[in-house]
Amino acid sequence: MWNSADFMNTLPARFQEKGTVHVLPREDAAHVRTKAEKLKAFTDQEGEREHAVMLRLVADQGQSYRGADIWDVMLSLGMEWGDMDIFHAHHHGPGGYDELFSVHTGTEPGFFGLSTLAEDRFADLIFSMDGVRTVQPQTVFEAMWKSAEYARARLGGTLVNEQGLPAMPEDYLHQIQEMEDRLSEFGFKAGEDVVAFLF
């Protein structure tokens, strides 16, 4: 079994050619071990879970959405076409911008090619966010929901969840709250650097 104290004792000899080395641990080895075990338990629990929050706007039967209309709706929402050829909602701040949520499509090839967008037609729009990597995920979801409702009012269709059932905002908020509670049990918050790094 790996022993942190033994490892620390080997360091001065490893660097003796460079001069005298003093090893000053920032934390007690037992405390570090406890933190590592907690982190492993956290990643074991959350590693198999799906953290994407998805909301789908489906065109009425026999209908489809014109790319030109989608473009107009997305720009009206302040969304930007960009990375991966899909639309993104950003929060612009002093340190740059954060991606809040995105819109892609289930219609092949799954993105919006700019050169043919005006003529293309799409069966759906998929609004999605990463709950665990998002600061204040409930607030961001509410913004995403309002955007999807606006798109539905402009384009028509039905908002459904991943199972194809009518989407209800309270179900999503409950799902997000459960995720935040699980993170909190381990002392983490959604959107923290360590959480974003792990997932």
- Count of individual helical segments: 6
Write the H/E string, N to C. Answer: HHEEHEEEEEHEHH
Q: Identify the strand order in the major beta sheet.
A: 3-4-5-7-1-8
Radius of gyration: 23 Å
Show the helix and strand layout.
Elements lengths: L3 H11 L14 H18 L5 E7 L6 E2 H10 L3 E2 L5 E7 L2 E9 L16 E2 L1 E7 L6 H19 L2 E3 L8 H17 L7 H6 L1
Antiparallel strand pairs: 1-7, 1-8, 2-6, 3-4, 4-5, 5-7
Structure in words:
This protein is α+β, with helices and mostly antiparallel strands and 199 residues long. The protein has helices at residues 4-14, 29-46, 67-76, 137-155, 169-185, 193-198; strands at 52-58, 65-66, 80-81, 87-93, 96-104, 121-122, 124-130, 158-160. The strands form two sheets. It has a six-stranded antiparallel sheet with strand order 3-4-5-7-1-8, with helices on one face. Strands 2-6 form a two-stranded antiparallel sheet. Helix 3 crosses helix 4 and helix 4 (137-155) packs antiparallel against helix 5 (169-185).
Feature tags:
199 residues, elongated, 8 strands, 6 helices, alpha+beta, six-stranded antiparallel sheet
Provide a quick synopsis of the model.
This protein is α+β, with helices and mostly antiparallel strands and 199 residues long.
